[in-house]
Structure formats: structure tokens, C-alpha cells
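Loading example: each entry is read as two labelled lines plus one structure line.
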Amino acid sequence: MQRNRLLQLGGVAVAAVVVVGVLIVISAAGGDKKKTTSGTKAAAVSSRLAGIPQQGFAIGRSDAPVTIDEFADLQCPYCREFAAGALPELIAKEVRTGTLRIVFHPLAIIGQDSLTAARVAAAAAQQNKLWQFVEAFYDNQQEENSGYVTDAFLTKIAHKSGVDVKRAFAARSTPAVTGALQQSLNAANALHVSGTPTFFISKKGGNPKQLNVDYTKAGPFISAVQQLAGT
Amino acid sequence: MAVLAAAGLGIAVYLTVVHYTGGNPICASSHGCETVQHSRYAKLAGIPVAVIGLAGYVAVLSLLVRDRPDTRLAAAGATMVGFGFSAYLTYLELFKIKAICQWCVASAVIMTALMGLAFARAAHD
């Protein structure tokens, strides 16, 4: 091989390294950008949920004619999009008025941080504060599986959501919590849930039907609820 | 080489189609590809990585069509960029997203082979 050609190839290689470097910088910047916009809206959340009955994993009146089952992983950014984009209006228009009850089924499909979070969420459900906890968690969500769900992090979330931290931490490894998470998983398996968020809608006493709508907007959920409730 | 590049192109087309027709993005456990394709690294400056791969394979194929010393050199450079970027994406899958998409890995393997062949060819001139 000519020396000249070798030099050319070397030049090409250097150029390629530079191009790849630029691509990586752009990618890393994009990856970080979506990180938490950690503005806590604790006050807004508490007023949004104030006065609405919560029982365990459910929010809304127990005699509501329509139920939506939500399967979610607290680490999942798409579940957060639902909570931020669709949930507030859905709660204001359908849950608060007594038409809809929403049941949260925590799943731990992304990783260890999901399970750590789900355990404390189930403990918050025992205190009927699950929905405040979930909203506060999403508001502070960070990069998946980065190990961010520490006790300090969970304490912060619990404080913001009015959950009794001591009680929650004491409860998180109990059979009651483990059993509740297992029930969620069983329900997910029975309904062939393959990812989060996944939604099912049902009329009181009826069979759940999967709701495949744009979960970032309240509108599609509201129409589905009204259609089923006949309102 | 053309066969390899065509195979890579096929994979990129498939992943691009999946990216745009996958419906609502979800976080999935069982399907590594869904997790990877819906991760925050699936787009680069708003462009799906699958589309970038598509463009890359088209570029390599078009360089293979005209077999001249300069296109051989360019093919070596293009496949090296493809290899470097694939290596970075595989790193993301392994250590950041912690999910493996077999199609992406197949593409990375093809790109690696293409780079080896392209370099050998260009060095022969």
C-alpha cells in the first residue's frame, strides 16, 4: 500500500472520529434535556385531589358507575405524561363529579428503582395517600434505573404528598405490601398488559376493556367515560 | 458488501416503520426493542435514530455503486462513522437504557463488518 493512501485513510478515520464525537454530544444533550423539570406543584396537587375519596389504590367514589384501571411504572416517563397531561382534567371533570373511579396498579417493569418506588407507593395506599404520592413522584422523576430512588428521595416525596414516612417505611416490606404488588402483577398478567401505561375501562360490574387512546390528553378519556356512563 | 449494506438498510427500514407506527409509546419489559425505541435516546436532535441509520446505509450503498478510489475512501469513512455511532448506541443500550434491541445489535454487527471490508478495500488501492 502506498504511504499516500495510508495517510488518506488516516485522515478519513480522524474525520470519522470527529463526526461521531459530534453525534454523541448532540445525543447526550438531548438525553439530558428531558430530565426533571423539578418544579414541585405540591400545592396544586393537593388542591386538585382535596375532598375526593381515596381508598387504597383507588380514587373516586366507590359507587362510581365507571372505573378506569391504570397500570403504571413510577419510573416510566410516559406514565408521567399521562399524569401531567390528562389526569388533572379527568379528575376535575369525571372523578370529582362521582362518575369515575380510577384504580392505580403499580408495576415494576423497568428496574429495581421501580420496585423500590412501588413498595412505598403501596404503603402510601394504606394511608389513602397514593394519588398524592404518585403525582409528587412523577413531578420529581429522574433518569430510569439511575439509582435515584433512595430513602432520602422517597422521604422527600412522602413529605410533599403528606404521607407518614415512618409508617410507610415500616410497611414497605410487609406481606401486605408485597401481596398488594403481587395482586397488581396478577391483574396485569390476566389482562395481558405488556407495557406501561396501559388503561382499561369498565362499567360497574362489567368486564374491563382496553382503552387505546392518546393518553396525553384528557379528552379521549372523558368521551370514553361519558359514553360508558351514558351521561 | 452490497449484500451486507442492503441487509442493514432492511433493518433500518424496519425500525423506522416500527418507530412511526408503534402507536402510543409505552415502557415495556419483555420487548427490548420497544424499550430502546421509546427511550429518550431514540431520537437525536428530533430525528429518530432509525432514520439516521437509514440515511447511513443509503449513503454507504450509493458509495458502493460507483467503485472508484475516492468512493472507496469515502465508504471507509462513512462506515467508520456508522461503526462509531453504533458502538455508542450499543453502549447506551447496555449501560443507560439497560435493554437490548436485537435489531439494533444486528445492525451494529453489520456496520462493523462493513467497516472492516471497506477499510481493507480502500487500503488495497
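Chain B touches chain A through 37 residues (CB under 8 Å).
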